[in-house]
């Protein structure tokens, strides 16, 4: 009941906000359509999180002397993932924009009394291609093997902005930068994996991918920018790439598996700037997962023995479920893969994939 009233408040208020913005009618209709679909999908998954509460857990092993990389993670879901990885005695490499924040996080975690594991912080702006290359090179210099790569950094909504390299910001942050990073670190991931214990790549995607469509003709959404449409596209691209790359690695008999994860609807700063946070902040406070609860499915994807050899899967609340049908479309997966390789000019500097 409260949820229904909350949703109604949100829908009415956003309708008013959109009408007052004086945009072309067609754009208003399209934006309203996305707004409503997001509210429906969001509410459905939020309820699901509540129903599945008991399933939202995974055993955390100890004394795992392994190495993980996480992008972003100085706050939100990522910082909880880091804390819990440290309790398993994992060495965590953080790639974040502000190195001081990463170091402050380590101090915080040590202050909580967690003495295991270690953190190394390197500078990384995942939306800048040169920064991704520099970060990857630094990791390669210092480490031979990487057991887990967690592609967590992400942004949601916001006005139309292009990255330094000229890509729509959500596409470049959520998808393109991680595509490149995963590609560049594959040799270290392959080295760490064995028949008994695969190395793993975990993409933090979102249930919003079900609303996505890959717009190859205008990947940057220059002709029509609807923030939520662009977010859904970037998250769908993540899921598709996970499935596709997992297939490729399987064919090559490599011991690396890829998962994409919906962490849940989680109360983080990702929602700053959304109408929901402005109009009804009690909804996230009351009903969303906490960042610790959001970290659980990600840890499950990294660590659970249940998933050994079961790459290419999509995880929600620590369970394997099917992603949207469009995410499983092999032709589009392949097209997106070669499209992205061309965008990044990957053949020019490496021949890995
Ligand atoms: N919250 C949810 O309900 C939800 C639902 C589905 C999926 N997700 C996904 O979960 C992931 C984590 O989100 P969150 O909820 O924890 O959000 P958050 O609290 O806003 O954290 C986002 C993290 O990404 C980092 N980041 C953003 N842009 C970056 C860039 N260009 N380079 C490097 N790092 C960058 C941020 O670092 P700075 O501190 O430098 O900004 C921050 O650490 C995202 O991929 C998001 O799409 C979240
Ligand atoms: C943690 O890593 C730093 C270098 O990144 C190293 O100097 C230090 O000895 C490590 N600490 C532990 C407890 O392994
Ligand atoms: C990260 O890169 C974007 C451009 O892609 C830029 O707008 C932003 O300021 C950069 N952030 C930092 C902290 O360097
Ligand atoms: C998802 O995983 C694939 C590896 O399968 C990686 O190349 C891709 O960049 C990842 N997507 C994102 C953006 O996290
Ligand atoms: C989000 O909002 C909170 C509270 O207003 C603020 O403290 C925080 O700095 C904001 N974060 C971002 C990333 O905008
Ligand atoms: C409420 C809920 O989501 N249940 C659990 C999810 O997982 C974390 C970690 O095990 C628990 O602390 C939550 O209570």
From TrEMBL:
It holds the Pfam family adh_short. The keyword Oxidoreductase applies. Keywords: Oxidoreductase. GO terms for molecular function: oxidoreductase activity. It comes from the Eukaryota. The keyword Oxidoreductase applies. InterPro entries: NAD(P)-bd_dom_sf (IPR036291), SDR_fam (IPR002347). This is Uncharacterized protein. It comes from Rhynchophorus ferrugineus (Red palm weevil).
């Amino acid at each position: 009941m409260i949820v229904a009233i909350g949703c109604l408040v949100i829908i009415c208020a956003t309708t008013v906000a959109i009408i007052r913005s004086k945009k072309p009618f067609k754009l208003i209709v399209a934006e309203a359509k996305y707004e409503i679909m997001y509210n429906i999908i969001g509410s459905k998954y939020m309820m699901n999180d509540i129903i599945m509460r008991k399933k939202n857990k995974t055993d955390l092993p100890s004394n795992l002397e392994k190495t993980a990389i996480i992008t972003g993670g100085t706050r939100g879901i990522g910082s909880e993932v880091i804390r819990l990885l440290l309790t398993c005695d994992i060495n965590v490499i953080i790639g974040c924009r502000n190195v001081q924040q990463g170091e402050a996080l380590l101090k915080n975690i040590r202050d909580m009394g967690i003495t295991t594991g270690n953190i190394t912080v390197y500078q990384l702006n995942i939306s800048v291609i040169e920064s991704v290359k520099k970060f990857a090179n630094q990791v390669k210099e210092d480490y031979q093997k990487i057991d887990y790569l967690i592609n967590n950094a992400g942004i949601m909504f916001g006005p139309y902005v292009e990255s330094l390299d000229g890509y729509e910001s959500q596409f470049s942050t959520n998808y393109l930068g991680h595509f490149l990073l995963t590609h560049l670190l594959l040799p270290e991931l392959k080295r760490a994996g064995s028949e008994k214990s695969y190395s793993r790549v975990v993409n933090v995607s979102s249930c919003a991918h079900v609303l996505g469509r890959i717009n190859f003709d205008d990947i940057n959404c220059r002709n029509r920018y609807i923030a939520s449409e662009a977010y859904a596209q970037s998250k769908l691209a993540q899921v598709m790439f996970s499935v596709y790359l997992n297939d490729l690695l399987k064919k090559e008999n490599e011991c690396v598996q890829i998962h994409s994860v919906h962490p849940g609807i989680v109360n983080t700063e990702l929602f700053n700037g959304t109408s929901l946070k402005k109009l009804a902040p009690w909804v996230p406070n009351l009903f969303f997962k906490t960042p610790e609860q959001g970290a659980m499915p990600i840890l499950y994807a990294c660590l659970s023995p249940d998933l050994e050899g079961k790459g290419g899967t999509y995880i929600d609340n620590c369970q394997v479920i099917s992603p949207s049908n469009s995410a499983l479309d092999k032709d589009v997966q392949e097209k997106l893969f070669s499209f992205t390789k061309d965008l990044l000019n990957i053949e020019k500097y490496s021949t890995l994939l």
